[in-house]
Amino acid sequence: MTDANKIDKVPSRSFELGDKMIEWKLLQEWQKDWFLPSEEAVTKRRVFLRRALSYEQSHFSRAVQTLRYGRVRLIEVYADVYTDQLEMDSSVARTTNLERFLELAVRPGANGLPDPQRWFEAVSRFDQAVSIAKIEMEDSNESLDRDMSDLIDFLSAELFVDGFEKIEIYCYHNPKNGYGVKAEDIGIGKTLSRPGFMQRKSDLTCRKTVHNELAYMRDRIKDPFAAWLKMQRQIHDPHKQDPFMVNDRCGLTFIVENMQELNNFAPQLVALLLEDGGREIESLDMNHHTQQSIDAKNSQSSSSYKAAKALIEWHGRVFEFQFLTLHDYFTIKRSLLDSNHDLYRLRQTLDHFLPLLWPKEIYDIDWVNPGVRHTLRTWKISQLGWRVNGEEL
Known about the structure:
393 residues, alpha+beta, two-stranded antiparallel sheet, 14 helices, 10 strands, globular
């Protein structure tokens, strides 16, 4: 690699930027540079920076902060036991300036060449920050919050009555079935007799529908980092025509008492949105009576994750809706079965995100190694709080 002064020389035009941000396909192509220090890799990024508009530059700095938080959070939730080994170069970790990333990338190591770890960290973080800024500029968190608020206001006025009702849930988990929960193992406002089962109590603040049904509602918004991670997973999905399109940035999940109420409530909500100008992107579907995943195109989604789901465009925004019964919700949340959402996310993170952000070539952790995966699964299970005779399961 040539010296930094030569790298500073920028050709007149290496690609067209025009009046819009860099294209996703080009950003994906840039990922090939993450392991190969080269003059060309730095030069094309400097060309991009010098042509970026002032408002884009401000987005870049904020995107670095979003990226920093997202990466730290990913380790804390899914790989905390390897925190020390995944530490990055402090000079890279503390900067929010994209130009400085490039300066650090070419800084010579002891042998006079760029250090492989510092190069990877600086160049990959540069590209990730640009990606996050692009997502924010194209569909900001502010607009997501606004559209979600509009939807919640609409449902509050048309589907729910004013006020909330707090209910006590006594949930009985079966140790012989991975701590799963069946419909008869839920007590609302009362305890049940379930010898040998593990009792857990939860307090839910529910909304009441105009038809006197109770529903616990959870809202979800994918921030730009989470949206970028999903793009990286979709790139390897042969079913995705446009891997850079993320349809579920906004979502609502409703938990109702049982299947009868789910069968009443879910179609009612969908019909209400369609009557108000909504459009079905994916029609309401459920997998309670099949052995198929609710998301058949996602190979990591378990068929034991039982839910109803719909994707609806309403007032120009696509929303994902999921509907679960209480017993399926607590199975997904707390069991050790494949349907457990945290364990599903761990598998997804091990398969896609950890190898991308902390590759074996740099950090010497083989994320496909059965021992590594067992360690992280055991650690995650311990967080669910299941212990017998003081020992973690």
